Amino acid sequence: MPKIVKTSELADDAVLLDVREQDEWDAGHAPGAVHIPLGEVPQRLGELPEGEPLPVICRSGNRSGRAADWLEQQGFEVANVEGGMKQWAFEGKPVVGADGTEGQVI
């Protein structure tokens, strides 16, 4: 089972794997995140950012938990971000939209 990391333990510019859908990403994401929707993760392993453990995030923690479980089975060292982007935004961490302006979590 992948470890769990709290958003408060991550830097505002932390490199994260965001597995939400495109519209969610466009509305708002963490500035250091890399976007690979959950359904595309198996085909895009070569695009995973460097760093271990790799924090995986979604809206609330469910999809990222599934992604983290699967990635761990493939030999990656990952951590599920507890509370997801909802918690990230709640804690006042930066959220940027697709155009670079302030975003929101949908």
From TrEMBL:
Domain (Rhodanese): residue spans on this chain: 10-97
The record's section on InterPro entries has: GlpE_sulfurtransferase, Rhodanese-like_dom, Rhodanese-like_dom_sf
Q: Which CDD domains match?
A: RHOD
Q: Where is the signal peptide?
A: none
Q: Which SUPFAM superfamilies match?
A: Rhodanese/Cell cycle control phosphatase (SSF52821)
Q: What Pfam families does this protein's entry cite?
A: Rhodanese
Under SMART domains, the record lists: RHOD
Record-given protein name: Rhodanese-like domain-containing protein
- What's the source species' lineage? Bacteria, Bacillati, Actinomycetota, Actinomycetes, Micrococcales
